[in-house]
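Researcher: Dear colleague, please comment on this protein.
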Amino acid sequence: MFIKPNFLNDDSLLTLPTETPVGGYAVFVGRLCEEKGLELLVSSWKDVSYPLIIIGDGPQKDILAKLPENIIYVGALSKDQVLGYIKKAQFL
């Protein structure tokens, strides 16, 4: 395993949405489709006591209708908003 330091260090480049949590969460960003492993991620994460934020849109969006409390689906966002979530996340 290799830990890559967060590469977003210029706050002036980002416009964070007001509801962006401050740290202490993981983030998934991508197209919501079978090949991305979203269903496995969601089913596995139900036993994890750490928040997960899912960002994106796609054909598997319907599996996000009933999520455990530790998973938040925010939908498709602008590039700046996505970068804001990534910057504040503990891991991606």
The first strand starts at residue 26 and ends at 29.
